[in-house]
Amino acid sequence: xxxxxxxxxxxxxxxxxxxxxxxxxxxxxxxxxxxxxxxxxxxxxxxxxxxxxxxxxxxxxxxxxxxxxxxxxxxxxxxxxxxxxxxxxxxxxxxxxxxxxxxxxxxxxxxxxxxxxxxxxxxxxxxxxxxxxxxxxxxxxxxxxxxxxxxxxxxxxxxxxxxxxxxxxxxxxxxxxxxxxxxxxxxxxxxxxxxxxxxxxxxxxxxxxxxxxxxxxxxxxxxxxxxxxxxxxxxxxxxxxxxxxxxxxxxxxxxxxxxxxxxxxxxxxxxxxxxxxxxxxxxxxxxxxxxxxxxxxxxxxxxxxxxxxxxxxxxxxxxxxxxxxxxxxxxxxxxxxxxxxxxxxxxxxxxxxx
Length: 354
Description:
- About 70% of the residues lie in helices and about 0% in strands.
- It has one domain (about 5-350).
- The protein contains 16 helices and two strands.
């Protein structure tokens, strides 16, 4: 289950609504995405992000990805007293993940192309040989999608209040998407000298349509995938890798039982290494300047620890605005930054955590 699926589930439970109504809310958030894109507001929001936070968002997403990888590998585990602690390294799957991590790291150090892919393949073979992963023959019923496709309840979503839909779905997904776009775009080096992404409207337009189509098909909000950083780190800089990946996902839908043999111990190390590559962007932050360093630090820290890119952006925006405005630079701050800061504060006051 992806992060947005977890968020959708939390909203469904918290608001006491059915999954059909939740899908209706997701569809409406997609419509709102589309309107914001057509009017150019989403592009303005991206351009309003202080350039000092671009590197911080990329580094924060790197830590986020690495944190997920460490958890999936079993290298860290939940603890009631310390929140997290060291996992049991004697567990076969955890030991395999650690060995796979070291193998990938050595291959990367030797500048071997496809080092991560080779590491995943090697770990999968080792998992099958050692019994960590077992494949059970099973059939794949592609018609099962009919159980959720086109079952969204838009009228029900409207009855629970559009304002709540905006704050429950649109806000988090909007800024998660923008944060991912900034972080992965920074790693890919697609920003121009003015910190703009070429053809960004096409990117955001596609994202809006994907959200609406995903709701029609019965899935949670479709947004840019933070794990796309793995492809970027391996050299993917154009839309071709994304197209190939999409085609492979279509094939994987038919061969899901076969791909189930790949254990988390094989894929988790890839996330950890990609995270390490993205954290390298911290060198672009002026750590000696408090007006820059403190918002950047809060952004980097809160993205993984709150498990939300949107929360990281919120802390970065608010701290950046307050620190700079109170230190004599209020006239240098974009008016939209003030507006977004107010929205972030309103969101925290209204929704609290999450």
